[in-house]
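User: If only I could read backbone structure tokens as easily as an amino acid sequence. Those tokens are not coordinates but codes from a learned vocabulary of shapes. Could you go through the record with me and say what the backbone is doing? Here is the record:
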Amino acid sequence: MKNELFIMEMVDNPFAVRLYMHFLVNEKLYIFMQLADAGSFGKLLEKGGAMDERDAKFYFAQMVCGVGHMHACNIAHRDIKPAVGERF
């Protein structure tokens, strides 16, 4: 987990949620991240069922840009999913 937090702090891309800092106090981990007030991609999918092609291309392009940036930094993301079915 420690390595993941340091890696997340290094990622600086408009298509990735920014982790500003983290620290440990009395064995409790505090993480300060950018607010993603639009919700998750899974929540977006649950709203309207099928998405039209134009919107799908828009969101897919953003995800590919974010993952492409991480790959350029030699970071592999192994847990990409829309989180459908997640409770909000």
The chain has a mean pLDDT of 81. The first strand starts at residue 19 and ends at 25. Strands lie at 19-25, 28-33. The chain is about 40% helix and 15% strand.
